[in-house]
Specification:
Elements lengths: L1 H4 L7 H11 L6 H19 L5 H49 L1
């Protein structure tokens, strides 16, 4: 549903940011979505900071922090997945060499 909403041309930057933040918790393209959430919420904060009330500024800042937390988690998950894939590949190569040497 969130991915479908992102295709709506009239969707505001705030709503796009929230959709990307939701998708940052999915198993597909989570780093991209986390990065987009940070980018969009940073833009929203920068554009609205001059006219924002203290409460609005606090809300925007907290939302950006949530996006940055999701970004950190997504990058950590990606590093772990990459490490696991590299270990599996190394094991497969080692196994193939071992079998080759046996024969």
């Amino acid at each position: 549903m969130a991915a479908k909403l992102l295709m709506e041309p009239a969707l505001s930057s705030v709503h796009q940011g929230w959709m990307h933040l939701l998708l940052a918790g999915s198993p597909h393209d989570y780093v991209h979505h986390a990065n987009e959430a940070v980018r969009l919420f940073t833009e929203v904060l920068d554009e609205n900071k001059p006219a924002a009330t203290p409460h609005e500024l606090d809300c925007m800042t907290k939302t950006l922090e949530k996006a940055k937390d999701a970004q950190r988690q997504a990058l950590s998950d990606k590093r772990a997945a990459d490490r696991k894939a590299a270990e599996a590949l190394a094991f497969d190569v080692f196994s193939m060499v071992y079998i080759f040497l046996l024969f």
